[in-house]
Write a structure and sequence with these properties.
The chain has about 400 residues and is mostly helical. It is built from 17 helices and 3 strands. The structure holds s-citryldethia Coenzyme A. Belongs to the citrate synthase family.
């Protein structure tokens, strides 16, 4: 070693990312969007109202929200040519791979209208992303089940339009179930932002290079895909299904987790920041019973999840590591009851997180102090040495 580290050269730990958007207290299990507690927003607000709050910093007036909603409805159509993009991919493709690629493909229709320094471009592309991501997501779903794509229906709310695009079929009338609609609205609100999580940090890093919203969001979708991050909601259902099908029982599974057999983890548990119960998980768990009951769905996987939580929360291994359920632990059971295939769960997370990604991209894009991101490193490699013969 040279005996010198970055710290010797005065690289003291650079200040953490500054942001005014979301506040988390991991020890107390507190989450606030622009100062408003998540519990109040989830129960009283709407996805688009919270999106406006995150992006512009204040709750919108009635007129502002009405205009925002109207603009989004009028931008839901995607270019007809873009539909052919989906036919180039195998129907077995994971919807998250389809979605991130589709967003990059979408950006090719707006070259020349995506200058981060042009406020009109930025505002219009905020609307375009919010309007079109749900449509692209529904097309990824329809593609995976071999059904025809539907056109958006501008007479419907954001959530009802999304439900119809996913579950409507050309041969029948579709009316969204109000229980599903309200539950999905609440779940999307719970996912809208979460300060410097991996995918949002990815969006900020890509955005800091001067890349436009489409490129930054596509990168964020790829980061979210990972099973340690947004992909965990899909992994939780796979884990519950394996426990059920293996017949090994919850207790035996928990022992395997504690023994770290084959690197198995209790998916949907633990968090980089929350060392207490994730406030979102609490809200999701509360609505899981209600939604399944109102949808008339009895899912043994919900009971299995509750049993798993009960055992883990009373086990020293998890207590000593401060591992609690996170937002991904119960969401999948609700999405499944709604009729979404497991591989669409992280796509739903992406739609939820989109306003946060746009808000953070906006925050750094409008901050004159923004510098290109370049995470620091501490060099741990070989000291200087000469090439043979030198
Ligand atoms: C999200 O950052 C965000 O805000 C993310 C998110 C958002 O809204 O954007 O909240 C969304 O990504 C939630 C997290 C979803 N991921 C999962 O549920 C996957 C399972 N969880 C783990 O992989 C883990 O808990 C992480 C990745 C979420 C957090 O990892 P940490 O904080 O780095 O914890 P760690 O790896 O340092 O673990 C500390 C100890 C270790 O044991 P020891 O080595 O000390 O013996 O806890 C253990 C870990 O092995 N541990 C787990 C565990 N999580 C941590 N053991 C079993 N099961 C788990 N889930």
């Amino acid at each position: 070693q040279t005996g010198h580290t970055a710290l010797d050269y005065g690289f003291v730990n650079t200040a953490a990312t500054k942001s005014a958007i979301t506040f988390i207290d991991g020890d107390e299990g507190i989450l606030r969007y622009r100062g408003y507690p998540i519990e109040q927003l989830a129960k009283n607000s709407s996805y688009l109202e919270v999106a406006w709050l995150l992006i512009y910093g204040e709750l919108p007036t009635g007129d502002q929200l009405g205009e925002f909603d109207e603009k989004i409805r009028r931008h839901t159509l995607i270019h007809e040519d873009l539909k052919h993009f989906f036919s180039a991919l195998p129907h077995t493709a994971h919807p998250m791979s389809v979605l991130s690629s589709a967003v990059s493909a979408l950006s090719t229709y707006y070259e020349g209208q995506s200058d981060p320094h042009n406020p009109e471009h930025v505002e219009l592309n905020t609307i375009r992303m919010l309007a079109k991501l749900p449509v692209l997501a529904a097309y990824a779903h329809k593609k995976s089940i071999g059904q025809a794509f539907l056109y958006p229906d501008n007479s419907l709310s954001f959530v009802d339009n999304f439900l119809k695009l996913n579950f409507g079929v050309l041969s029948e009338e579709y009316v969204a179930n109000p229980v599903m609609s309200r539950a999905l609205e609440r779940l999307l609100i719970l996912h809208e932002d979460h300060e410097q999580n991996a995918s949002t940090s990815t969006v900020r890093l890509v955005g800091s290079t001067g890349a436009n919203q489409f490129s930054s969001i596509s990168a964020g979708i790829n980061a979210l895909y990972g099973p340690l991050h947004g992909g965990a909601n899909e992994a939780v259902l796979d884990m519950l299904g394996k426990i059920r099908d293996s017949g090994e029982g919850v207790k035996r599974f928990v022992e395997r987790v504690k023994n770290k057999e084959d690197g198995v983890k209790l998916m949907g548990f633990g968090h980089r920041v929350y060392k207490n119960y994730d406030p979102r998980a609490k809200l999701v768990k509360e609505s899981a019973d209600e939604v399944l009951a109102e949808l008339g769905v009895k899912d043994p996987l919900l009971d299995l999840a509750k049993e798993l939580e009960e055992i883990a929360l009373n086990d020293e291994y998890f207590q000593s590591r401060r591992l609690y359920p996170n937002v991904d632990f119960y969401t999948g059971v609700i999405y499944k009851a709604m009729g979404f295939p497991t591989r669409m769960f992280t796509v739903l997370f992406a739609i939820g997180r989109l306003p946060g990604w746009l808000a953070h991209w906006n925050e750094l894009n409008t901050d004159p102090q923004t510098k290109i991101g370049r995470p620091q490193q501490l060099y741990t490699g070989a000291p200087e040495r000469n090439y043979p013969g030198m």
